[in-house]
Amino acid sequence: MAIWLTLLGFAFLAFIVGLIMLFAQSKRKIGIYVVSGASLIIIASIIGIFISFGNYTKLQQQVATYSSDSKNGNTKSEGKETYNVNWHNNADGMDKKISTVAVEKKVVHSTMEDKDMPGTLTIAIEIKNNTKNELLSYPLQGELTTVNGQQLAADIILSDLIDGKMKPGATIKGTIVFPLDKLDNVSDIEWFEFSWSTYNKDKLIKSDTGRINLKK
After folding, report:
1. Number of domains the chain is built from
2. In 144, 152, 200, 214, which residue has its Cα 20 to 30 A from 192's Cα atom?
3. What is the three-class DSSP state of 172?
4. pTM for this model (two decimals)
5. Which of 71, 99, 131 is the last residue of a domain?
């Protein structure tokens, strides 16, 4: 569009010069040619501007639609693998389980980063409080580390786990979704480590899964 606008500006100036030349007897013939040529260029430039504007509007609509789809989870999946990891740990008075992990190559909008990400790693977790005290457990605020040194934070909006207070004998369970910064192929994610914090009164408990390998 910028080219057409520039061309329109030059053509308009030429048109003005041509009009001035029409008033000079010696240059009237040249003025007629200049005005005619400038008029044609002005018309062509206006048409070009309208076409360019139409294409720009169409592109904007496509971008807006794509962004809306990614925010609503309506983008197309390019591959997904679900792994049965069956990780279990009962240290620190908690029964902690991660049953499945799913890696999917699908564009999602990370609400934490406010940008689109190429895929996700989702863990299904379950935590039971076996102590006599009320615990405060925050797996949604935990950190997941995976291949290529990616250190990931959970997306609270995309996840369905509700963490926080756990009364004695209570269980929290659900999925935690981690948008991935890098993902060319689903098979690229071969392992992960996940850690999170829990508070038993004033005592900080750090839970760590260690490295969990993803194998079919």
Report:
1. 2
2. 200
3. strand
4. 0.63
5. 71
